[in-house]
């Protein structure tokens, strides 16, 4: 009897190890192979700056309330409240100690597009790597080169303040398995270069879906409601619907949307408010053709 019990326990332990090993293998961090970053030329800093503004880097990584040139000091520290706890945005200035000054291109690219930190750990999706996953190696190389030209900051951001079980970083592998994707969110006419560009900007560096799309209980996108509006993650108000079915912008023309993104003024001479102010100011720095492409995409997505 005792021998059977020992055999049963040994079998259960063995199966537990197999299951745990399989789960780890399925959810382990997956950086890009080294070849993904090889063969790139010296960064195009002008293009890197465009990716920088399209990605809204200053909106989260500059010090709260920063204005003018101070917005280019990517000091971090901004608290991002969420249903899962409070995330603190890191310093991504070129500082060697507090920032990313010692990072390699591969480390930066893996963080941006794979959600893998320089230490090989999963990053929390409060950093929108699920959207930045659409960036090409050239985009990443140019952006990294541009960021390295910006001022250094010695500020050390506080650690995330997350309750159990959200503070278990290893669990993020399961989240990625369920929700991480570098595929387009909605179909568009791939023969239409303007729409393709708009989709790239909105779904990729612009990461518009991160705020404008509702999420399920685990924080994954409800993709059938893409850009249909969502509760403000910080608990106050509603992020608006920006599909053609919106009561707010559904009747706007492409020209209306492009003008709003450039000037901040609606067709009714109202102005952007809340967190959209900084988003609009960032997009205003892009070429007019990019704003027109964003407008074309927003008029082409399914109405909700």
Automatic annotation (TrEMBL):
InterPro entries membership: Cyt_c-like_dom (IPR009056), Cyt_c-like_dom_sf (IPR036909), Cytochrome_c-type_DH (IPR051459)
Entry keywords, A to Z: Heme, Iron, Metal-binding
Pfam families: Cytochrom_C
Domain Cytochrome c: 43-151, 193-302
GO molecular function: electron transfer activity; heme binding; metal ion binding
Stored PANTHER family: ALCOHOL DEHYDROGENASE CYTOCHROME C SUBUNIT, BLL4482 PROTEIN-RELATED
Protein name, as recorded: C-type cytochrome
The species this protein was found in: Ferranicluibacter rubi
């Amino acid at each position: 009897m005792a021998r059977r019990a020992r055999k049963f326990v040994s079998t259960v332990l063995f199966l537990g190890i197999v299951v745990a090993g399989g789960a780890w293998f399925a959810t382990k961090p997956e950086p890009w192979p080294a070849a993904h970053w090889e063969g790139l030329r010296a960064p195009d800093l002008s293009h890197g700056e465009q990716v920088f503004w399209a990605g809204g880097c200053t909106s989260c990584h500059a010090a709260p309330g920063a204005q003018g040139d101070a917005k280019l000091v990517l000091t971090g520290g901004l608290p991002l409240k969420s249903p899962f706890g409070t995330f603190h945005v890191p310093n991504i200035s070129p500082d060697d100690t507090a920032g990313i000054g010692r990072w390699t291109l591969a480390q930066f690219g893996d963080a941006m597009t794979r959600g893998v930190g320089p230490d090989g750990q999963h990053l929390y999706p409060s950093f929108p790597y699920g959207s930045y996953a659409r960036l090409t190696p050239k985009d990443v190389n140019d952006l990294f080169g541009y960021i390295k030209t910006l001022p250094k900051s010695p500020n050390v951001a506080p650690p995330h303040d997350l309750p159990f079980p959200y503070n278990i970083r290893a669990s993020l592998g399961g989240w990625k398995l369920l929700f991480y994707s570098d595929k387009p969110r909605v179909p568009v006419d791939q023969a239409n270069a303007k729409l393709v560009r708009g989709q790239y900007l909105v779904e990729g560096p612009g990461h518009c879906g991160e705020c404008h799309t509702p999420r399920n209980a685990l924080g994954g996108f409800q993709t059938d409601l893409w850009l249909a509006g969502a509760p403000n993650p910080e608990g106050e108000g509603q992020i608006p619907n920006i599909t053609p079915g919106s009561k707010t912008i559904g009747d706007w023309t492409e020209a209306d949307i492009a003008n709003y993104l450039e000037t901040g003024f609606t067709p009714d001479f109202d102005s952007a408010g809340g967190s959209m102010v900084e988003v609009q100011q960032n997009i205003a720095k892009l070429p007019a053709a990019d704003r027109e492409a964003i407008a074309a995409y927003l008029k082409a997505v399914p109405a909700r």
